[in-house]
């Protein structure tokens, strides 16, 4: 039976990947769990437990080979694969995401942008013409779409998400205010930027 990895562990993997990339940039070739702990603010035992979920990668008395660990975590995260991506909603958030340079570096290829506004349809973002959402079904029939990024108003999210899911999209990255629960077998990642901002506000308030 396949081992079940907790969501908390999976959510820490991109952070490990980022810190390891920083180590490679300054030519650090190996690091112990304790040294990594001091840099990341995670206990050494937590780091060992997390990495042991995927095989460990460390050597007793040596620690971790930074480059090897970086590549292995990248494989776990699917960095070595390419994912085709579309954006639904070409407002401020959609525009910002379309212009985010790290998407392509991380293996996410933006191939389509959709909206309903006559003011936006036909214009271009990063060389990609914004299409009307009515053309979405035809587009998905002609192109493999792995991930749809949603930045639409809350009142439209359920209908748009169900339509996307029915077209064979594998995953949805939802930036809309409402959490998604779909009847289709689609992976959904809900992102709430305001939650993170409120946590920051709480931490500042506690200091006061």
Q: Number of domains in the coordinates?
A: 2
| SS content category | alpha/beta
Helix content: 40-55%
CATH architecture of the largest domain: 3-Layer(aba) Sandwich
CATH class label of the largest domain: Alpha Beta
User: Could you tell me the number of beta strands?
Assistant: 9
C-alpha Rg (nearest Å): 20 Å
Q: Strand fraction band?
A: 15-25%
Main sheet makeup: 7 strands, mixed
Terminal Cα separation, in Å?
50 Å
- The total count of helices amounts to 9
What pattern of helices and strands is seen along the backbone?
HEHHEHEHHEEEHEHEEH
Q: What is the CATH superfamily classification of the largest domain?
A: NAD(P)-binding Rossmann-like Domain
Q: Which strand order do you get reading across the main beta sheet?
A: 5-6-4-3-7-8-9
Spans of at least 5 consecutive residues whose pLDDT stays below 50 are none
Task: Using the coordinates shown, work out and report the CATH topology of the largest domain.
Answer: Rossmann fold
Mean pLDDT: 89
The coarse silhouette is: elongated
């Amino acid at each position: 039976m396949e081992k079940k990895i907790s969501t908390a562990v999976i959510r820490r993997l991109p952070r490990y990947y980022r810190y390891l990339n920083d180590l490679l940039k300054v030519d650090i070739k190996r690091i112990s769990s304790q040294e990594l702990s001091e840099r990341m603010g995670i206990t050494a035992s937590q780091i060992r437990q997390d990495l042991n979920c995927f095989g460990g990668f460390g050597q007793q008395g040596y620690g971790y080979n930074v480059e090897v660990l970086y590549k292995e975590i990248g494989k776990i995260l699917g960095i070595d694969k390419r994912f085709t991506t579309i954006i639904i909603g070409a407002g401020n958030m959609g525009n910002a995401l379309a212009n985010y340079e790290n998407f392509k570096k991380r293996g996410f290829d933006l191939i389509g942008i959709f909206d309903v506004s006559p003011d936006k349809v036909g214009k271009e973002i990063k060389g990609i013409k914004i299409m009307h959402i009515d053309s979405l079904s035809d587009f998905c029939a002609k192109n493999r779409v792995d991930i749809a990024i949603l930045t639409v108003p809350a009142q439209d999210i359920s209908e748009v998400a169900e339509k996307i899911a029915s077209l064979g999209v594998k995953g949805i990255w939802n930036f809309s205010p409402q959490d998604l629960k779909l009847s289709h077998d689609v992976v959904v990642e809900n992102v709430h930027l305001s939650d993170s901002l409120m946590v920051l506000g709480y931490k500042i308030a506690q200091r006061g």
